Amino acid sequence: MSVPQQGAPEVTDVHAHLLMPGLHAEVERRVPEDVQAAADLELRRNGLPSLQASGRMIGERFPKLTSVEARLAAMDAQGVDRQWVSPSPNHFYPWANEGLATWATGEANRLIAEHVAQAPDRLVGLGTVPLQHPHLVVDALDDAVLGRGLAGVEISSFAGEVELSDERLEPFWARAAELRAVVFLHPFGCSLDERLDRFYLSNTVGQPTENAVALSHLIFAGVLDRHPGLRLIAAHGGGYLPTAIGRSDRAWRVRPEAHGCAHAPSTYLSKIWFDTVVHDERALRWLVEAAGADRVLLGSDFPFDMGLDEPVAFVRGAGLTDADTTGILGGNAAELLRTRVHA
């Protein structure tokens, strides 16, 4: 374990994942046809070469995705003191019916809690909710935070016909704010489907697109106006939105249908948190300028190949001030958790 400098906050990676093969095996046993349909959709969205490459990658990194010991060893090598561990996004199961979704999210929350409990001084857990069934999400959030002691939940950018602007999610946003729980926005899949089925565009273009679309739904629908206490973290630096926010501001000024939020969209960047998985020091500096250094958190997307292999070195090499760097590496994350509601 790395030793923080005297008075410095722990270096905290807020974007790391757990794969739960037993959970997926049971889902497949219960609904094999649904799992096959989901696999067919992934093939259409990603293309066979990308799925084959991802399969090899996950096989090589399987210990880091499942073993606490391998996780801690990798954290030590990276100079990371603490990780926030969330489900691998393939465990969202956005197509699951109510019964299966209730069971699967509860089981995911249990397994995440058991994993982080093996190293409670170094690991923090984030659970999940069945986003496609809005009437179930508050109970799932309560299960994660109050039942399992997790710091919050991870959600996708959409689930079936449910967008994040859906009015049926209002009780969820209200409850998340009340519990001061982290809501970690991490897309899985992209609705552009076959247009991104080569060159790994499903990830390189699809993930930033989904982040931008989901955040835009939240901003333009006024969700952040109604729930100012929401602790929303966007993976992958928020995707394309922070660097293209001027176009959103223009629409807010000139288009009546884009005037559902109280203020210009760019002002909401300082009400959202963003991780550092942007792969470009210039993009990180722009994110700090656009959202504020206090709204940026160290992330790695551990242990996937599209993450940051050396997340701490990436931040330190971005040319930021010492104070901004210290906050991003751990101070901002510590402040987010300082007043959270505990089970």
List the helices and strands and how they pair.
Layout (H helix, E strand, L loop, with lengths): L11 E7 L2 H10 L1 H15 L1 H13 L1 H5 L1 H11 L3 E6 L10 H20 L5 E6 L8 H11 L4 E4 L2 E2 L2 E2 L6 H10 L2 E4 L15 H4 L1 H15 L2 H4 L4 E4 L10 H10 L18 E3 L5 H11 L4 E2 L13 H6 L5 H17 L5
Helix pairs in contact: 1-2, 2-3, 7-8
What descriptors fit this protein?
15 helices, single chain, Metal_Hydrolase, hydrolase, TIM Barrel, 343 residues, alpha/beta, lyase
Folded structure, characterized:
The structure is a single chain. The chain is of the alpha/beta class and 343 residues long. It has a single domain, classed as TIM Barrel. The protein is built from 15 helices and 10 strands. It has helices at 21-30, 32-46, 48-60, 62-66, 68-78, 98-117, 137-147, 170-179, 201-204, 206-220, 223-226, 245-254, 281-291, 311-316, 322-338; strands at 12-18, 82-87, 123-128, 152-155, 158-159, 162-163, 182-185, 231-234, 273-275, 296-297. The strands form 2 sheets. Strands 1-2-3-4-7-8-9-10 form an 8-stranded parallel sheet. A hairpin with a 2-residue loop joins β5 (158-159) and β6. α1 crosses α2, α2 (32-46) crosses α3 and α7 packs parallel to α8 (170-179). It is globular, with a radius of gyration of 19 Å. The model has no long low-confidence stretch (mean pLDDT 95).
